[in-house]
């Protein structure tokens, strides 16, 4: 949740952006469920989508609309994923864009659409139409908090982030809202993320930056190893900051890239930490590999192992489960060169369990944030993955989700 002092943070922090979140009756809970984000000045747009072959209708529509490289708005709903809904689902996704465009005075192709929730259910378009109309009427620079709340499903809170930097002598702002808690797996982990900036940058360079950054942010998290049908990240850049157009290979681009990376990585951490039923946030650092890909493969095997995740939930320093995951990651290794540490304390070295003070390790395992270091001794590359434990509550949430 935002504090009262930060109501203008998040997606509406950059100049020219407004947002709203309203109740349309799509969520069974009756909570906010339709979000609208708008910039009157045309924005350059970039997007990255799920790699799941079963892509939801909004993803299919957005893949076409984003080709023009510009957008004025994003409309999203929670409570219904509009996935596996056939031709009617495509029609309804396009109708969402038409309804929003009619309210905002732009073209339907300039409105991007998202849905999240239960798969295989058709959108209630009467409720959607009323929700979009209400959201358009409530657009405000204070609307980020409600927009963020309107896109969450099993999340315990909406995720938001804001940063300001100087580019080309101008203050350039970045803001974002995101949702994600379960069905989180790399290759766009169920998550939605919307990022706004008032930077002046082309859609082509914006897309290049986003595509690169996703690989070291959203594609480096795992809650449960499941990949959603609806995962989407959008960045809108409306140029309202007035900076000279950012060009590749310049200091301005370096600053822009680093700031966007920070936004994406911070949101990634928040999503992993808010995993369904999570009690522990796990940072998994793998170093000493021959390539980034090798390090990522090892870290992901650890992050996705139910045995590892349940051990940390139970605060059991069972390093055997971690070294086991390292061994089946498909990366050549030398067990005697591998070192594993929990919270900086060596627990495995020289092919054997290391000696440690049980009280010190117990203190590490009781913490809500735990760092797992794996040193492979094979090279100079590395990777970091963010994950969480697996609790009784995760089973309860997902056992009851559809009903």
Characterise the protein shown here.
There is one protein chain. This protein has 403 residues and is an alpha+beta fold. The protein folds into two domains: 4-272, L-amino peptidase D-ALA esterase/amidase (4-Layer Sandwich), CATH 3.60.70; 281-399, ArgJ beta chain, C-terminal domain (Ubiquitin-like (UB roll)). The chain contains eleven helices and 15 strands. Strands 1, 2, 3, 4, 5, 6, 7 and 9 form an eight-stranded mixed β-sheet that branches. It has a seven-stranded mixed β-sheet with strand order 8-15-10-14-11-12-13. Helix 1 packs across helix 2 (86-104), helix 2 packs parallel to helix 3 (125-137) and helix 5 (203-214) crosses helix 6. The longest helix is centred in the middle third of the chain and has 23 residues, at 251-273. The two termini are 27 Å apart. Mean pLDDT is 90; it is low at 1-7 and 183-189.
What labels would you give this structure?
single chain; 27% strand; 2 domains; 403 residues; Ubiquitin-like (UB roll); 32% helix; disordered N terminus; 15 strands; 7-stranded mixed β-sheet; alpha+beta; 11 helices
Query: Helical percent range?
Result: 25-40%
Number of strands: 15
Order of helices and strands: EEHEHEHHEEEHEEHEHHHEEEHEEH
How many alpha or pi helices? 11
**CATH architecture call of the largest domain:** 4-Layer Sandwich
Q: Any low-confidence stretches, pLDDT <50, length ≥5?
A: 1-7, 183-189
Radius of gyration: 22 Å
Looking at this structure, what is the CATH superfamily of the largest domain? L-amino peptidase D-ALA esterase/amidase
CATH class of the largest domain: Alpha Beta
Total count of domains: 2
The end-to-end span amounts to: 27 Å
What would the principal axes of the Cα set say about the shape?
globular
Summing up helix and strand content along with how strands pair, one would put the structural category as: alpha+beta
- Main β-sheet: number of strands, strand sense, barrel status? 8 strands, mixed
Tell me, rounded to a whole number, the average pLDDT: 90
Tell me the quaternary state.
single chain
- Estimate the strand proportion: 25-35%
CATH topology of the largest domain: L-amino peptidase D-ALA esterase/amidase
């Amino acid at each position: 949740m935002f504090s009262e002092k930060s109501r203008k943070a998040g997606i509406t922090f950059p100049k020219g952006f407004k947002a709203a979140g309203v109740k349309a009756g799509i969520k069974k809970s009756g909570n906010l469920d339709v979000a609208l984000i708008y910039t009157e000045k045309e924005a350059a747009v970039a997007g990255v989508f799920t790699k799941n072959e079963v892509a939801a209708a909004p993803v299919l529509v957005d893949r076409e609309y984003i080709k023009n490289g510009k957008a004025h708005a994003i409309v999203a709903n929670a409570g219904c994923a509009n996935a596996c809904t056939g031709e009617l689902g495509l029609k309804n996704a396009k109708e969402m864009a038409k309804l929003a465009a009619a309210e905002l005075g732009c073209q339907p192709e300039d409105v991007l659409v998202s849905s999240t929730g239960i798969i295989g259910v058709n959108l209630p378009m009467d409720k959607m139409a009323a929700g979009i109309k209400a959201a358009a009427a409530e657009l405000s620079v204070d609307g980020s908090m409600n927009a963020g709340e309107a896109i969450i499903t099993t999340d315990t809170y909406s995720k938001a982030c804001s940063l300001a930097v100087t580019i080309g002598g101008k203050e350039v702002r970045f803001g974002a809202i995101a949702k994600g808690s379960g069905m989180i797996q790399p290759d766009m982990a169920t998550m939605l993320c919307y990022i706004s900036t008032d930077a002046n940058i082309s859609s082509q360079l914006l897309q290049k930056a986003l595509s690169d950054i996703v690989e070291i942010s959203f594609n480096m998290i795992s809650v449960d190893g499941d990949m959603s049908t609806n995962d989407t990240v959008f960045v809108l850049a409306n140029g309202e900051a007035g900076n000279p157009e950012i060009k590749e290979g310049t200091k301005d681009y370096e600053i822009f890239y680093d700031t966007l990376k920070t936004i994406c990585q911070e949101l990634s951490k928040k999503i992993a930490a808010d995993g369904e039923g999570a009690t522990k946030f796990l940072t998994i650092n793998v170093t000493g590999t021959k390539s980034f890909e090798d390090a990522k493969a090892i870290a992901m095997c650890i992050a996705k192992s139910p045995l590892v995740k349940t051990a940390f939930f139970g605060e059991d320093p069972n390093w055997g489960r971690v070294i086991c995951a390292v061994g089946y990651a498909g990366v050549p290794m030398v067990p005697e060169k591998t070192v594993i540490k929990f919270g900086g304390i060596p627990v495995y070295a020289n092919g054997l369990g290391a000696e440690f003070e049980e009280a010190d390790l117990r203190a590490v395992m009781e913490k809500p944030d735990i760092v797992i270091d794996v040193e492979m001794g094979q090279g100079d590359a590395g990777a970091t993955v963010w994950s969480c434990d697996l609790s009784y509550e995760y089973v309860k949430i997902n056992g009851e989700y559809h009903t």
